[in-house]
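Key idea: predict the complex, not the pieces.
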Amino acid sequence: APNPDSGVTKVNAGVIAIVDTAPIHLGKAKGFFTEQKIDLTITPVQGGAAAVSGAVSGQFQFAFANTTSLLTAKQQGLDVKVVANGVSSTGEQGKDFSAVLVEPDSPIKTAKDLAGRKISVNQLKNIGDTTVRASVRNAGGDPTGIEFVELPFPDAPAALQGGRVDAIWVVEPFVSQAISQGARPVAWNFADAAANLTVAMYFTTGRTDPELTKRFTAAMRKSLEYADAHPDEVREVLKTYTKIAPDVIAKIYLPKWPVEVNKESVQTIADLAVADGVLKEKIDVSALVP
Amino acid sequence: MIRTRLGYGLAGLGALLVLMEAVPRLGLVDERFLPPASRILSALAGQLATDELWIALGETMRGWAVGLALAFCAAVVTGVLIGIVPGLRALTSSTIEFLRPIPSVALVPLATLLFGPSLGSTLLLVVYASFWQVLIQVLYGVAAVDSVASDTARSYGLSAWSRVRHLVWPTALPYVMTGLRLAAAVAFILAVTAELVIGSPGLGAEIQVAQSSGAVPAVYALIVVAGLVGIGVNAAVRLLERRVLAWHPAVRAEVAA
Amino acid sequence: MRVVRLLALPALLVLVWWAVSGSSFYLPSPAAVGRAFAETWFSERLADDVLPSVGRLLAGYALAGVLGVGLGVPIGLSRRLRATLEPVLEFFRAIPPPVLVPLIMLLAGIDTPMKVLVIVSGCVWPILLNTVEGVRALDEVLADTCRMYGVRGPSRMRSFVLPGAGPQIMTGLRQALSIGIILMVISEMFASSSGLGFTIVLFQRQFQIAEMWSGILLLGLLGLGLSALFRRVERRVLSWYYGSGAARA
Amino acid sequence: MLEISSLNKVYESPGRRVEAIGSITFDVGAGELVCVVGPSGCGKTTLLRCVAGLLPASGGEVRLDGVPVTGPPPRMAVVFQEYGRSLFPWMTVRQNVELPLKEKRVPAGRRRELVDDSLRAVGLSDDADAHPWQLSGGMQQRVAIARAVAYEPQVLLMDEPFAAVDAQTRADLEDLILRLWRELEVTTLFVTHDIDEAVYLGQRVVVLSSSPTTIMEDLKIDLPPERDQLTTRSLPRFGELRGHVYRQIQAARGER
Amino acid sequence: MLEISSLNKVYESPGRRVEAIGSITFDVGAGELVCVVGPSGCGKTTLLRCVAGLLPASGGEVRLDGVPVTGPPPRMAVVFQEYGRSLFPWMTVRQNVELPLKEKRVPAGRRRELVDDSLRAVGLSDDADAHPWQLSGGMQQRVAIARAVAYEPQVLLMDEPFAAVDAQTRADLEDLILRLWRELEVTTLFVTHDIDEAVYLGQRVVVLSSSPTTIMEDLKIDLPPERDQLTTRSLPRFGELRGHVYRQIQAARGER
Ligand SMILES: Nc1ncnc2c1ncn2[C@@H]1O[C@H](COP(=O)(O)OP(=O)(O)OP(=O)(O)O)[C@@H](O)[C@H]1O
Ligand SMILES: Nc1ncnc2c1ncn2[C@@H]1O[C@H](COP(=O)(O)OP(=O)(O)OP(=O)(O)O)[C@@H](O)[C@H]1O
Ligand SMILES: [Mg+2]
Ligand SMILES: [Mg+2]
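Result:
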């Protein structure tokens, strides 16, 4: 609630502590939120589902979740509304923050070869398997036979090396880490799925004051813009809220942080999700992203 | 006596350390995924020097202690009541057996809904999980009352409260102690897990951040912290046991030797 | 009468639930959950998700039983062994299964063996601890009787140690049963694409809340069924204990 | 005072049915001391437990002061045959003896006195702070007796209370019980295997048959009320009674 | 056969130190039957447990056939004073008696025979399939005796084995022990509170003083070797010996 004395509003944001959310940390450090009279607390959450339930239950005024999670929540009738872009794919093959990796001596050479293989994703029926299927489809393969298994990103490289799975989908810092240890990328699934794919977004629920939302959006936009323009500062801020080793931080591919949500790409994901059975029916993205 | 026990205990831990050092060094598993003990310990030393770890540990221990105390008291009272009031056991048994296997993790949505990422959520999960551990032990302990002893109490007209205090409770105590040891660990595990899953601040949150940053030695260092806490808690309960169960054959034998 | 006693409290609880439900998205009404239950579990899910999970649960539980009793007996019998191993065991006992899973995955892969091991890693503790304490508390006069009549080795185990510690071992096994179910869910939160626990977690993440609660309901029912089974076995195994008035249950 | 009428008790468990007591009827007057003897396994303990209200009878009933006994009546003390199991191992000897007194709300000073007196009477003053498991069998049994004595009961039930003590201690304890009985007019039911003891202590001796148990004989002991270990036991009548009871028990055993 | 030399035993626990046995020295020849009597709590059980190798002595030593006893020697049977606790509640009477025989690898046929014989001897043939807790105190004690008898030991230690049975049964069991002893030449150490019993059974009676325990007297019983409940007990010499032992015990108790 707004504090009548100072006009400063206390805000609690549920945000997962990964590379993708650097802007909000950077923005907070730069005082962009204070400028908007927002006293921001960033609470680390474990994933999209936790962020959504935290927001719905009123614990968070704003939170960060990936596109598919938000689409699913919307379809289940939860009152979620996007307030700002979260993170986007660079769209460049070989230079994105998300990739499908295989062992160096694997017979899998291209995305097409992934058909019929066992691939790990961090969560089933989410953005990972949808985009990996898209990669395979784009390369001319048949994604229906792929066996996806759930593995948290941190455990995936070990499973790959141990031969437990044929390929893994991971995001930074695990992409750089695995590649430096010999793993070979065969697909850049975010880049494949849609041009300039919006991977995740900041959102709120109906109960948040629209005026506050406006201020948060403004601060967030400024943060995104700043982060996108200052990769070195991003790498610095990563050291404050993650435990990624400094030498890794120096090497990782940073994502893009455009200010605007790429609605088209969200719609693409929504349509792919329906085709893959992740979503039950077609969904109109404008209801989610105003 | 205590000193030789300590000696044996340290020997056991030493053996574990050697094993943890050898397994990665011999290439049985990849060092990158399971670093040798020396690396873990040096990471631990680094962590111990930071305030963060101690603050996180403090948070976790607070949730642990409060949750454990709540669960323990509630379970003991409930267990004794169910155990001695005729008919109550039959009335509650199906419900208990139904509720017991519900994983605390499944209550995460409920917890976040009610309390969000705060101490409240942690407490809900901790209390829920450790309550059953103590309760079952108390139920079995109460059932273990010797029939002759119980007849004695009845024939001398001991009131219900005196029977609980002087007969039921001492008989159940060894079971309760095991329950306390079980619950202490479960409470700690749930405190960490709650932080891990919900993200309330504490050791679990630290582990979660370390994991998603791919900082393997740091993850293991934090796990070691958890293990050390476990050893400490157990030692404390054992000490307590020596005091309150001095009359018990098992403890008697230990003290005498 | 028996049925009334068994059902009175659950019925009351459902009423309470019914009264408080509806206020929130996360607390659907009993009717909604019932509907979801019928739709969700009376389908091929039963064979695809539930049965394999229960199979793993039973395998893990059995393994934990063998391990817990097998380790607990020597630890309970030997003071020296106990002093040596206790800190190590306490160390592992305090590690939350979710963080132990990656380590188990390193050693056992990501398939069924891993999941069974995760179940074992949680179930074994109550069995182990109770066995140790049960063995420690064996009656001294009986122990002396065994020594006098030269009852040693396996026969001592069979005719003295195991039955003597029986009541407490059973306590541990009873505890482990529900912990096993919990661990079954946790094990399926990793490296899975099917299973009862996985399905529940998936429902949770997909905000299919009624379905999620129906899964929890199923877990509870599973626990109820297994514990009824357990009770029958226990009454058989410990008939002397409940008959002797050494215990009143 | 205590009326036992057509008492019957059957133990039933899967695969085993034992009629421990066929049918027993007898009275114990207020302030009377009745000894019960009978062959091993004939149902003496069972009888006592029914009288104490610890075991529901299968048939017939027990009345105390005209009221049917359904649970342990107040102001009753029992010394169990399984003396070892009836002491609480987590309490010291003193605490074991004191507990029922506390329950009776005896004031602390008087309590102390009673405990000390009774422990002295059974010869355990020095062991008041030991735990029961630190004592010999006979000492444990004496603690159980001291507990009953200190309680100053109106009804006293004793099940072979001197089985584990030596002859001399036994004689002392017999006199202790006699004194207690006389001073407080305690209605006493005393189970024993020692025929001399039964005749020496009892105003009446009830001889039970072997199972299914009935009363073989309800014998009035017509010895002078003032009894003394030396003189009473050397009375010719004592010898006669003793011989009579002995023959009865032998007959009881012979029957089966 | 059995040499006990300057045996000393002190129980030490925080806050309590009891010298249960001061110093005891005596021998039991092969095939001899020695009875031990003494006041309650004087250390008889302690002595027996030291002899059985169940309790380490604090001083002195026990030798069996010249070999120091450090643990329970083979072919030794014990009847414990706590008979109730020495039976396995999860086994039937038969299984309890049979267990040591199985351990001894007695062939099944012979085992059956031994078990049936010994149960018949103690009068429990009908209760072979009952569990110990379904039996009366005296019956439990007889199971423990049957177990020892069936075992056919070389050395037999008995701690007040007839405390819970009636007079007639006791007489029968006494004769059972005498028969066993004579037939198998079992070296027997027999603790009892009953002076008549000690004199009736023993070739020697060892009288212990009250604690700190020493030997008051080691009395040779010069009664004819063939003993019989009626004739032996009515011998004048029996009465003399009995009186002598009685006086000794009284002196032992007086000392403290
Ligand atoms: N809990 C029980 N379950 C089944 N049968 C029992 C139980 N208790 C006693 N009995 C049986 O009842 C009968 C009488 O037992 P009780 O203990 O009353 O005998 P008792 O006269 O006290 O014998 P003793 O002098 O040996 O103590 C015995 O045959 C015994 O087997
Ligand atoms: N476990 C023990 N711890 C401490 N003291 C003990 C223990 N067992 C026996 N004592 C003490 O040792 C002394 C002798 O005990 P013991 O049991 O040998 O006597 P006993 O001659 O068998 O007596 P009884 O005829 O009453 O059975 C007693 O004073 C007793 O208090
Ligand atoms: Mg009896
Ligand atoms: Mg003794």
